[in-house]
Write a structure and sequence with these properties.
Blueprint lengths: L18 H5 L5 E3 L6 H10 L4 E3 L2 H11 L4
Parallel strand pairs: 1-2
Helix pairs in contact: 2-3
Length: 71
């Protein structure tokens, strides 16, 4: 939730791009939704890597509330 990259040693088992390249993308768009993704979305937003987030209204409200300790 804090926006820190965790489990870097797991990168050998996950299909992804290196974080240096990820943060170098000019317009990074994230797409996620649903109540089980709220913590992951908040963490992704806190990294500062995302420029745009596409999600549903209910999930957006839950992310907002969690970020502002309103839950």
């Amino acid at each position: 939730i804090n926006g820190k990259i965790l489990n870097e040693d797991m990168q050998d088992y996950i299909l992804s791009i290196p974080k240096e390249r990820l943060f170098g993308i000019k317009k990074l768009i994230g797409i996620a939704g649903g109540p089980n993704k709220v913590k992951a979305i908040l963490g992704a937003l806190k990294t500062g890597a995302l420029d745009v987030l596409i999600t549903d209204e209910v999930t957006a409200e839950k992310v907002y509330k969690m970020n502002n300790n309103l839950t």
